[in-house]
Amino acid sequence: MSDAAAPSSVRFADRLANVETSAIRELFKLLGKPGIISFAGGFPDAALFDVDGIREASLAALATNPGAALQYGATEGFDPLREQLAAFMAVKGVTELSPADLIVTTGSQQALDLIGKTLISPGDKVIVEGPTFLATIQCFKLYGAELITVPVDGQGADVDALERQIEQHRPKLVYLIPAFGNPSGATMSLQRRRRVLELAARTHTLVVEDDPYGDLYFDQPPPPSLLALSAQVPGSRACLVHCGSLSKVLSPGLRIGWMVAPPALLAKATMCKQFSDAHTSTLAQAIAAQYLAAGRMPATLARVRSIYARRAQAMVQALRQTLGDTIDFVPPQGGLFVWARLTGAGGACHDGGVLAQRAIERGVAFVPGAPFFARQPDHATLRLSFATVDEDRIREGVQRLRAALGT
Amino acid sequence: MSDAAAPSSVRFADRLANVETSAIRELFKLLGKPGIISFAGGFPDAALFDVDGIREASLAALATNPGAALQYGATEGFDPLREQLAAFMAVKGVTELSPADLIVTTGSQQALDLIGKTLISPGDKVIVEGPTFLATIQCFKLYGAELITVPVDGQGADVDALERQIEQHRPKLVYLIPAFGNPSGATMSLQRRRRVLELAARTHTLVVEDDPYGDLYFDQPPPPSLLALSAQVPGSRACLVHCGSLSKVLSPGLRIGWMVAPPALLAKATMCKQFSDAHTSTLAQAIAAQYLAAGRMPATLARVRSIYARRAQAMVQALRQTLGDTIDFVPPQGGLFVWARLTGAGGACHDGGVLAQRAIERGVAFVPGAPFFARQPDHATLRLSFATVDEDRIREGVQRLRAALGT
């Protein structure tokens, strides 16, 4: 079974022609090089996982009702977890959310997949931020979406441009990461959030809010989520889908996400989930429910926030001091990423892809920004994650970046 | 959020028009009635789960390498589990299978979804057994498959009919459950298995073998799986996909399945999985790997086999003695199901749907067989699961069935 060519018995579906293997995957193969400092990750630091808390939650899940934790479960999710997640959202200002208003998904990636499966027909237009999460681009493309991009600045998506795009393209949906976006790191302002909701309600446009990072703020919480704000904007709740995740704040390995959506959409997404994976791991759900019920989350969040805040600050300072005017960026207020643009000042490299190759040779890795654009890539951009590197190594890594930049 | 009508902002994808909500789901709502004896389930008995073994495996997974067990993982699967699964397959006669030849899926339901996503374009023809697994029918229909059925008898799918269907329809794939099928309970004979492989190789037709029940035999193991036999039939391995699962033998709540396929197909399925749920719960995978490594599976299998064998025998005897010639069936040699046909002898009810309603009133539940047919339903059929009911209750349930039959 070593021949990678498809035998004549295998004829792939047409939808596969819409996606290509990620250039980033190729880059990741180089990360095994010894001594490399990696800013390339898009994941939390495993050293910060609350292993004791998860062990206790596992034992509690298998002690409380092992039959239920190990058996098939409802496609919508394990009820004790749905209750805990509704309570978790209430703390974040999402009022009047009942457990029945959300379904549990196998990571928020599956929520994106269910959105695609439920809503996107080939040729449908979908508006995403430029840049946006790579796996969203590919996921929606697999369902045949035609992607339109709206620019992002330090205040999040440009809502004037979004309004024009909606009027021009009448999209099936708009996908946004308003808080500490991947890769943009941007925080959408309160004013823009209100405008997005008003725009959605006025034009009857479905807006998907992907919010895996909102809890990872450094100083101040970000503005309320679109979901929380929707209570203040008449008609907007019926146009809103919200995707949450425990991956960045507790553990990606649990694969626990959730999706809040209007009832008719939630019902169809549940049907699609039934035929996608039947339900999310009941054991993982029972563990997450026990963890949340044990009340450990506030302390866990406080700890990861403070550590990521220090690392972010170390990276921001090092980039400014060491790279000067060869790089431009808006310091993130939370999340895992600094999104930067090479200015080419003083003849320095201004192509993220070229720099990524040179950087690997110098012992530092990051992800070039171009693949994060569904259209019209900006080749001068790059994504740097500070989440998994301690402060001294961050400074050392930025020194290596300077060497790679050739300044 | 109580209005179930879709707001004007929600316009569903065309593919949803291909599936309808299952009639069985409506029936399942009645199962909460007190005192009901349910033969309606399609799941293993939670009372048989090896909770101690899974607790030990959980502790081991969180002690050995908690960072890895709780972090993002490779889309292909957690390597220690892939190694254990390859070894598990080797015990069942699948030689020359390396861990790289399989990917871990979120239950075998996800393997079906990935097969659909990777292979099926709208209008593609797919051959399935009549009757077959309901969630396969719906899953493939969501990708636009046009389903063709091949009849099943006590020896499994009718291979003469299959050959004709393949020649006539040139299907994208053939989907079979050769061992103790759901709902048929049938075991495909060795001779038919060989013929299926020869047919696949000769006509370059992709065959999907779904094998969640093969380990649940009562007396003798079933004939070797198509995957095991493919070593003996030149050219057949390149036409074969095999789906396995721990759901029926260990715990459905873990959601651990796997898929063996030709490399080119496995690569595309991996790409599709990346955008479906990124990867299967790493923690669940680490627990399953520890469980298999601990060597507990043989004893667990021996225990569930003997208990299901006794329950199956109790049901077979009770059906024969109590229902006589009003019902016809082939006793299963393994699995969870008796598949039966109402003969109407002596004026007894011969409609499975009608009988199901009457049976609920008498305090016994089962699933009518018609929905398991992708085409031309046989309304006289029914599926009875003995897996979760003890022997006395089985006999009592069959007495109630007799009352419902009106004989």
Automatic annotation (TrEMBL), chains A, B:
What's in the keyword line of the UniProt record?
A: Aminotransferase, Pyridoxal phosphate, Transferase
MF GO annotations: 2-aminoadipate transaminase activity; pyridoxal phosphate binding
Task: Using the record's annotation, list all stretches that form the Aminotransferase class I/classII large domain.
Answer: 55-401
EC numbers: 2.6.1.39
Q: Name one Pfam family in it.
A: Aminotran_1_2
**Cofactors required:** pyridoxal 5'-phosphate
Q: Is this entry keyworded Hydrolase?
A: no
InterPro entries, alphabetized: Aminotransferase_I/II_large, Class-I_PLP-dep_aminotransf, PyrdxlP-dep_Trfase, PyrdxlP-dep_Trfase_major, PyrdxlP-dep_Trfase_small
The GO biological-process annotations, alphabetized, read as:
alpha-amino acid metabolic process
What family does this chain come from, according to its entry? Belongs to the class-I pyridoxal-phosphate-dependent aminotransferase family.
Q: How does it assemble?
A: Homodimer.
Q: What is this protein called?
A: 2-aminoadipate transaminase
